[in-house]
Amino acid sequence: MWRPTMLRRVTLPLIKENTTISRLLYSTKSRAPRSTVKLTLISASVGILVGAGYGGYTHYKINTKKLSGQTENEEFAYLKEAPAYKSNYKVINEADTSNLQLVLFQYQTCPFCCKVRAYLDARGISYEIVEVDAVLRQAIKWSGYKKVPILLAKVDGGYQTLLDSSAILSILETYLRDKTYSLQDIVKFYPLSKFENDSGKTTTDVTNKYFIMHNSPVPDEKQRNLETEEREWRQWADKVLVHTLSPNVYRTARESLETFKWFEEAGGWRQTFPGWECALMVYVGAAAMWLIAKRLKARHNIQDDVRQSLYDAVNDWMDVIHKKGTPFFGGNSPNLADISVYGILSSIEGCTAFHDLRDNTEIGKWFDNMKNSMKETRGRMLAV
Question: Using CB atoms within 10 A of its CB, is residue 1 exposed (0-12), middle (13-18) or buried (19+)?
């Protein structure tokens, strides 16, 4: 793979997938007249439903839409002062040698946030967590970018924001492999760029987000192939696997409500947000996402039997693990593809869909191996 020998902005060509990956990748006091009262109630109900639904939908949105207030090739925002925030908890690892001071603004059960946490735990990095409420999103009021995850890193003279879960993994991995560059230098390898998506809409994405930029010696052909495979399966996790989740965890009204109740428990919503907001997120959000999931099913060509689409995707992943004959895709230890798939699947671990997945595929052993690996490398969780 290409490795920069001097700091400059680059745009690499699109990854050329092999036949299998290509198939997998292309296989969200006066009383008013009764009519007025009725109209007001209907309008308010629709407004609440749409608002809560949007909040729930952000748990499963791909962060590829236009970034608010940013233009083509604008860098990730740099702040001279840290925004005001209140941590929910910290993960402290005394063995952390990264010299990174990180704050993750997240939804606990967002698959992309889970992916970032999985990476930080796998690399033994200390970090703080700020749980964002999906309705008001007050915790990221300071940011022009209104989605999560947002990672805030302390750097010389200020704070660097990092966006997009896949870009965050690549930027941090680049930094850990070659600390001759600062984070501010490294983000220049990942410029934002505009393009037209499959629907013909202009959208913004992070260029090179699946590439690790470092100055280590050029590897042999075998190592280059391994790096290419890692990138391709990271793409697959974002383009295929994640799209099977929403239609499954919101498959029925009952499952949708169960899912949101698990979100409430896993995210510690009752300890963090007002009771009325928790009720709004759980009950109205569950109803809205049950409806939205039907649209997502059609958009991403999910089978009528949505469970089978989930099983098929996971079976594709397990097939490649079996062919390698190793505990992880990365061999004896997880690589970025393992971390990406694990992070995404861990976001539904408390849902009926995940229990069915364990019962009907061979994902259980690999998933448990990943969880045990994370326990060995992550730090201690401290409540704030």
Answer: middle
